Amino acid sequence: MQVQAINNQTNFKAVIKDKDGNKFVYVASENVAKRADVVIGIVNEQYTEIVSGVTATDRVIISGKDYLSETNNKIRIVE
Question: Which bin fits 18, alpha (ψ -120 to 50), beta or left (φ > 0)?
């Protein structure tokens, strides 16, 4: 699976809500996508502030995330 990931800013499209209403993103860790539960702050038309759950150096997946599941997601990051 090919995905696109970003650092430092979180695109509003990266945040997913599960069936219970919990918000999360997928983070690229080597060649695996892992779920990271997040707490959301300010939201505007372009970006979503994440106040906890990921760090500025985490690679948040923004493209291809709709094809991921919560277990064992092997990925290849495209820049």
Answer: beta
Q: Which residues pair with 72 in a beta bridge?
A: none
8: left (phi over 0), alpha (psi -120 to 50) or beta: left
**Structure-block tokens of residue 15:** 């945040």
What number of residues does the chain have?
79
Does the pLDDT of residue 3 top 60, yes or no? no
- Tell me how far apart the alpha carbons of residues 10 and 74 are, in angstroms, rounded to a whole number: 22
Could you tell me which residues come within 8 angstroms of residue 79 by beta carbon, excluding any fewer than 6 positions away?
4
Contact (Cβ atoms closer than 8 angstroms) between residue 5 and residue 31: no
Position 78 scores a pLDDT of 78
Per-residue tokens: 9: 């800013």
Q: What per-residue confidence (pLDDT) applies to 2?
A: 43
